[in-house]
Write a structure and sequence with these properties.
Length: 222
């Protein structure tokens, strides 16, 4: 899906991917990663994910990037949080104030972000981000992560895989072999857990999907 389509989805409120509670995989695995708090946790393609609040509550600084300003503003307003807004090159930077101090979200394209803007990143969290991107962009996405993250940065990746003939993405099917090949050059990839079954489908069942597998990985920038 090209950028324009994502903007349309946010304008029209077509947000089937948004979760209204914390992700249970993040709750389960994050504490045991022991991610350093010296740098921030990077949340690429963050939408208005509540998981950023959980990371912040756990004592982390959070840096997110999201194409849609609607999403970024909604994150702050729906959680009764305040921010100040500044321009940062092609991006708009929303810096949390008060209770939200330590959360910085960039509205704009991930590929316009650089380490001068993000500062040091010692962790990252990818839920529904890699799988939101079409095949031709995924390798560039992983290369961008490798550029932005500090060596030794740790994070979680939640990916999914399904029979691509039963549904067209996003979310795209990104099987284990593809995760390994994309991340293999600059990251170590440890498989943590796999879930499957029709009960995990949610709104994807309406699009023709009968089953899918969800994979959780521990990823380290080497
Ligand atoms: C499937 S949603 C997932 C959002 C979030 N990770 C979550 O778990 O709710 C993917 C998001 O990526 C954003 N996005 C897509 N391409 C992007 C890009 N190049 N740069 C920044 N954000 C992008 C979309 O606007 C959309 O909000």
């Amino acid at each position: 899906m090209v950028n324009e389509k994502w903007h349309e989805r946010w304008e029209q409120g077509k947000l089937g991917f948004h979760q209204t509670r914390y992700n249970s995989r993040l709750e389960k695995y994050w504490p045991e990663l022991n991610v350093s708090k010296e740098g921030a946790v990077f949340v690429p393609l963050c939408g208005k994910s509540l998981d950023m609040l959980l990371l912040h509550e756990m004592g982390y600084q959070v840096v997110g990037v999201e194409l849609s300003e609607i999403a970024v503003e909604a994150f702050f307003s729906e959680n009764q949080l305040t921010f100040k807004r500044t321009e940062s090159g092609n991006l708009q930077e929303f810096t949390g104030t008060g209770k939200a101090a330590g959360i910085r979200l960039f509205a704009g394209d991930l590929f316009d972000l650089d380490t001068a803007k993000t500062g040091p990143l010692s962790g990252f969290y990818d839920r529904a981000s890699l799988i939101a991107l079409p095949p031709e962009i995924r390798q560039q996405y992983v290369a961008k992560l490798a550029d932005l993250l500090s060596h030794g940065a740790l994070g979680l990746l939640i990916s999914l895989s399904y029979d691509p003939s039963s549904m067209s993405g996003p979310p795209f099917s990104v099987p284990d072999s593809e995760v390994q090949s994309h991340f293999g050059d600059h990251f170590s990839v440890d498989y943590l857990e796999q879930y499957s079954g029709p009960e995990r489908l949610g709104s994807l069942a309406d699009r023709g999907l009968e089953t899918m597998e969800e994979f959780v990985y521990r990823i380290e920038r080497i």
